[in-house]
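hey so u asked for the seq, here:
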Amino acid sequence: MVAKEIFKFGDIIATRSNGLLSKAIRWFMQLYKPGSPSFSHNAVIINMWGNLWIAEALAWGVRIWPIEQSGYLTNKQCIILRHKQGFTKDQIEAMSKKMASLAGTRYQYENLPMWAAKILVRINFFRRINEKSIYCSELAAIAINEAFPGTFENPNMVSPADHTSKGIYNVIDYNNIL
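ran it, structure tokens below
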């Protein structure tokens, strides 16, 4: 178990598992960005009432919950992506409010085949920004864009590999998995 104090508001968690879906996403990410660290999911650390909470897009939609209940304190397959510029209190507040406003938004399953088309046949079928449905790395891109507008030009086209390869984060590999 890792102490929750290692996490800071605004951190992006990159994680993976040995599950079939995680392995498939990581395989596609290696085709998309060869050599990038292999992760399949992103979550955002936000400030809720002065406490560390997780915002993440899961199969049942965007969920906001206390870090203690999320499983990230015991997950051995995660790293932290900490923005190199850091965040002001106002930026953290904006990110946290934005993430809270998206709670309950449905998961964007329709982008999964879009990613397959983009990676395998190099055809871009992605639509314009759509916050009526969101997937995990898109949610993390939306959070970062709240603090630093325009960091991710098209959040609905951001993958876990885009986060790990962007060069805007310091990587905290507290589990020594890289």
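The mean pLDDT is 91. The first strand starts at residue 12 and ends at 15.
lmk if thats what u needed
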